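hey team, just a heads up i'm posting the complex here instead of the shared drive bc the drive is being weird again. everything in one block, sequence lines first with there labels, then the predicted structure for the whole assembly after. its two chains so it's a bit long, scroll down
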Amino acid sequence: MAPISPKRRKLHHNNDEADSASEGFESGGDDVGSQSSADERTTTAPLKQMQARAKHVKDIDESALYSGGLYKSNMFKLQIDEMLAQVQPNYEKRMPGVNEALHRLKSLIEAIEDREMLPISDAIKMLHKAHKIVVPFPDPKPDKNAAYKLAYAKPSKINVVGSYAIKTMIKSDSALSVDMVVVMPPSIFQEKDFLNYRYFYKRAYYLACIAAGLQSTAPDEFTWTFEYLNGNSLHPILVAKLNSKKTKSESHFEIHIIPAAPESFFADSKLRPTKNSIRPKNGPENQPTTLPPSPFYNASLKSDCNFEPYLKLLHSASKQESGFKDACILGRIWLRQRGFGSSISNGGFGHFEWAALTALLLKGGGPKGHAFLSPGYSSYQMFKAVLQFVSTTDLANKPQLYEAADFVPTKSDTPMFFDGPRGQNILFKMTPWSYELLREEAKITVEMLNDSTFDQFDSTFIVRTAQHLQKFDCLVRVPIPTTSPETFSCDHKPHLASFSGRLFEVLREGLTDRVSFIDIRGPDLPPWSPKSPCPEIGEQSSLLVAVLFNPANIDRLVDHGPSAEEKKKAAKFQKFWGEKAELRRFKDGSIRESLVWSPGSSYAIFQDIFTYLIKRHFEPEMSKSLTFVGEGFEKLLPGYGQGAKAFDALKQAFNSFERQIRDLDGLPLQLRQLSAIDPQLRYSSIDYPLFNPRQPLEKPADVLIQFEGSGRWPDDIIAIQRTKIAFLLKIGSLLREVDDSITTKLGLENEDQPLKNCAFLDIVYESGASFRLRIHNDREQTLLERQVKDKLLDQRTREDAASALSTYKRTFLQLPLHTQSIATHCTRFPLLSSTIRLVKMWFDCHMLSRHISEELIELLVARIFLQPHPWRAPSSAMCGFLRTLLFIARWDWRSTPLIVDFTGTLTSNEVTSINTRLEAWRKIDPGMNRTVIFAASNHDTTGTAFTDKGPSKVVAARMTALARSACKLLKDQGMDLNPKSLFVTSTTDYDFVIHLAPKFAGESVRKSSTKHKFKNLEVQSDVNLELVGYQPVQLYLNELEKLYTSTIVFFHSAVAGSTIAGLWNPQTLASRSFKVNLPYASKLTMGTDKGEVELDKDAILAEIARLGGDMVLRIEVHR
Amino acid sequence: MSKIGDYTVLPLTLPPTTAYPKPARHTLYLRPHAPKIPSESDARSLFVVNVPVDSTPAHFRAVFTKLIGAGRLESMTFEHEKVQPSAPSQAVEVVSTKGKKRKRAANEGSAQADTELPQLWDRELRKSGSSAVVVLVDQKSVESALKAVRKLHKSSAAEEEKWPVWGEGVEDKVPALGSRRYLTHHKMRYPDPATLQANVDAFMTEWNRKEEEKARLAKRQRNVPDEDGFVTVTRGGRTGPARMEEAEAKRLEMEEKERKKKQELTEKPFYRFQLREIRKQEQAQLIQQFEEDKKRLMGMKEKRGKFIPER
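-- predicted structure starts here --
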């Protein structure tokens, strides 16, 4: 850290500099220049600015307190203020010397010598000879024998425009860019230059001359590169980066030198989007009106004239409306988080378009030409209203015109917001697909902002949603064909743009309602040195097609086309689909054109269709080099694509089981309810619940039975537990009487906890379905509660009762509700089931599954589906999985509860009370020794039903760390991420690892249970029945955990399963004085005579080995 | 070092296993038994701390055979081992401390043997670091055992050989560990239904008997004055005392009624000043909420990065 005083001096110094610099610009500019400089003067001193802001904020605070409506809620407003204060760069600190650099560049450019008129070929040659500079002419390159000449003359004006000028920049990873506009003098143009690229050729030459001039006078001060402004190949610009050798810190800004056309030099009416400006070369000289329009070309030219007018517009808006600037910053953040930008490849809607749109909506755009935004809106209201405008107005079908009464737009599929006074469609860079996406994003955000229950600040501004794998379901890399079929287009359409346009059309028609969104992104051209020719799109480069599935339709096997009678439509259909289209007669008697796809996973079907479409409509070669990304995650699930029906089969077995129980005669009490509580019965177990007559369900599905209340139950908890045994025996014998193919077995559990449920009944059907029945008696709760409260009992009994009570609440009260909710939502969201399973597998692979209950994981995933903001509910397991990881990585469980709203009926009051409850917990137990994670739902507002037994703080922290590193990997590798790499078990962090003998390790048990080695074993099904529910490793682990509760934390993965890892509790590691009831095996500490003992690791590990016996292969000690 | 505090240290050699071949030792701490509540066998008992988790009497028998010769160990009890059966019986005992009942209470112990649920494990495990009491045949054996240990400490034999080896010679006498143990457990979990039924019946008869007794006792208490001449008032009619739960339910009901009445009185504002007060309260609440939000925000601000959009 530098001492304070020199820093202060520097600041002061800079202030002076800035002022003088802006004065310098004043000379060149007109009123805008002075306006901007005045503005600069007031805002350059960051300290003053902050003070002013703080005061302003305070004023609003006070007024907002009671008015309420200005911002969403107090908290939301406070957060916005905080964010606005943090995102704005400290212009002095981050961009030292920017004003000097601008000043210097200005004087350098003004010093460049004029060049006389030269024919094109001479001009090119001369520049190349003298300066080695290649003129960045746009395609098509100019005709060398053209009659017109190129020239350079001093610019008429040099101005700073863009977000630096109006101070709406935000911090970002990439360098901040300052736009400097160099207005070319009218003297070098002719009136007709807007035609046939002539203006752009002259502009390119002008730019090359500036580059040549700057490079020869100041070669070392800056690094010079050419770049396309916003990816528009008509707009090459020169980028100057300061070579800061003096200061070590890298300068965080670059200056864009943009040649601009003289304002109002070209006639407005000629450059309307409906006019044509590119006349065919060889065609007959038609009247220009009959030629198709060239809106993109016109708008590109027009935008070159409009730098200053827009600066004026934005300035006046920010002067009139105090909230305007902040609204622009909010919009800018919002756009960036969603991956939108001004550049064509980023959708063509960036902060400039946002600001312009806001400024225009302040003046018009509403009904009857009134302003859409009322004056006096706060920044947040303005932001939300603009989103509302974007989401509700379909600008592609209904172009919006602002002050352009005489202009009649023609139909096109790109959106149009025509700014009459400046004669430009501000959305001209957008594509149909980027516009659709933008509207969808706006719609989601408006919904989010209307949510009164949850605070959506994070999902609106903080979460970055642009990550493709989290946003889309399937990504396809499509190679760009080197040659395009010669389609004549009047507009300026580079090869890439026309190809992606055509691809979009084909995909939209071919995929119909299988997908809800298609996004196509082209590669960005990198900046290039002025000495080399403009880069072309390489052979290797490809388009990225991202698709959002519609889960209801994606795996449809038969597409119904038009009926055979509709000749025209049928012919069109046939033409589109070629040989794939066939005429079929359907069950309802209709005869239709149709398409039949071979069955498979949704990805396989999608891939089939996509490949076919490419083959049919583009080069067949291309279809071979398509790369599909997305299925990799789902493929990791055990039994992918095989056992999807297994859950339903078990569910049916459960239903018939329930019927059978209901029909039983002779039950001592009236049956009230039979409820499922097993993951296998709510579509969420990692493994499919596979069963058949020879191979009964390995883990019996847990079911609860509840009888009508009766006074005949004993009024004592232990007696109730014993009575249950008699009941279960009775049920068992009744069931066997009804159906003698049923096997029932009564088992005991919780042998050392007499207060807990002690018996269950295993019921195995002939089909192989097996259930584990427990009796629910609601009397237990009162009895246990009484025991917990009873002050006469000793501490230990009360603790036992408390533990039994929490187990009771979880198994008998929460689990039935939870199971029902999850099962319902699994049918509502087809992808919820596989996402839950994938996330469970992730937890399992990282050996956390013993600490984090399945229910907690289900709640986590359910939240992603039920409160999916800032996205829509996932439509693929990949999205769901990665978003869950992102959620976990971002989740601050120390201070925020997980709240799942299953029915969408939680009120903000309830949410507040849940929050308060968590705060209370943290106050009682700041060390988080008991409750760590707080997961509430509408069934359980206590939030601890499924987190009572863990995870501990260590495990929760590990969960977060793992999720964070997974998200980082995703961010770094993007589409190249290998899904498997997220599921690799690592045991290096543990103190010791117990390797299990292969016979007992997860994988082999799995295999042996599904496939018999010997045929003759299959016949002996009795053996199998005996072993239903036998899990030696789990039993072993349970015992280890009981024996070494406070000493060792054990980790185990049930799926991978060959190891058990352990961590010593660091609190037990220190040596301490001897006492009798140490909770771990100890030995004398060597070397001291104080009579101290320490943890005897060797003895414990030897014990573990003895206990495991033949199950343990070896124990590996790391530390 | 052969002693720590009052305890004599007895290391045991743990035979290496294939899974954990590292030679290891387990430390036992021995002391003559001196419990707070003395009993007759104390003089010939040793208090052993830090027994291995897989300890059985057979294991200790082998250890003491090595130390002081065969046949000296009479019995042993481990910490947490169930000596007295559990809760319900104790509850009754508390109530029935009067002279007459003592005899019956003693009977209960024996009657309960078959009301316990069947064992699910063929071998108990001990918690890590727990203790046990070893009863030897006579007081002399206690002394000689401790002496033998001290002697071993002094002996110059190789470390590996001089200490008793854990589990030596008991291989066949105790049920095996490892997968066999779990398989047996899995089988024992499902006891024979007939035994279970008999067990439950026995338990219920026993329990009913106790319940009746409790009822009778309560009834009697209603009529008999205690030492100070007071009669305990219990709920219920002439036929018998009400069940606790019913009494409680009634009480809750009454409380609820009372509460509702109060609420109705206080909540509905009647006077103008009340209305005004309520409005004031609401405003105060708003301000408080705002202040709380502010505070929360400050808290969030402390954790950096909360307000910076992710990149």
